[in-house]
Write a structure and sequence with these properties.
about 210 residues; alpha/beta; Rossmann fold; seven-stranded mixed beta sheet; two-stranded antiparallel sheet; 7 helices; 9 strands; globular
Length: about 210
């Protein structure tokens, strides 16, 4: 099956039945060729309901987790998003396909170089900045950000993220221990962060000050 059919199958079997209803998000996940972001596996495996290794001890999340985090983030065209943990670049591509302005930070230089070539080659007109840096510190030079999405687990919210968030911004981050976390959503209202908790998840650890 060619990749458009696999992407449609992914949306119809993995996402819609799990209450992912944002049509812009679903279109983005059909349009972005996920198999290009997963090295050394068949297209059928790339679109399967699993997290997959991408090298350097990192993973690409299963499609449902990518969709759920993106839906919780609530991006609009023009939203300025800081992504912590570029990884393969798939999450950044989904955000950019939805019209977000994306600043994505990765600490693994070898992984970053491959991802930069892929993203810029695949989406030359997208507004994506790819930065090599310590993600636990955010990226102040291009802040503040309307949304912050963290694709690695931390024991608590690193302080730098709150400082770099706009007055009505939102953060989505997995918090917990190294084995199991829950997706946490922080909304800033009236100068304070208000926290809600979503589903269980399991991410690689966020490494650096304020994390593991």
């Amino acid at each position: 099956m060619e990749h458009h059919g696999l992407a449609l199958q992914m949306v119809d079997r993995q996402l819609r039945p799990r209450n992912i209803h944002n049509e812009e998000l679903l279109r983005a996940m059909m349009d972005v060729p996920r198999h290009l972001f997963v090295p050394n596996v068949s297209p059928e495996v790339a679109y399967s309901d699993h997290a997959l290794a991408i090298g350097y001890g990192q993973t690409i999340s299963q499609p449902f987790i990518v969709a759920r985090m993106t839906e919780l983030l609530d991006v609009c065209p023009g939203s300025k998003v800081l992504e912590i943990g570029t990884g393969s670049g798939y999450q950044a591509a989904i955000l950019a396909q939805m019209g977000a302005v994306v600043v994505t930070v990765e600490r693994h230089s070898c992984l970053l170089n491959c991802t930069r070539d892929l993203l810029y080659g695949l989406m030359p007109k997208a507004d994506i900045r790819i930065i090599e840096a310590d993600g636990t510190l955010g990226y102040p030079p291009l802040g503040p950000y309307d949304r912050i999405l963290v694709t690695a687990a931390a024991p608590s919210l690193p302080p730098a993220y709150e400082v770099q968030l706009t007055k009505s911004g939102r953060i989505v981050i997995p918090l917990g221990d190294r084995m199991l976390q829950k997706l946490n959503i922080f909304n800033r209202r009236n100068g304070k962060l208000h926290r809600t908790v979503d589903l269980d998840c399991c991410f690689v650890p966020l490494i650096g000050p304020g994390a593991f």
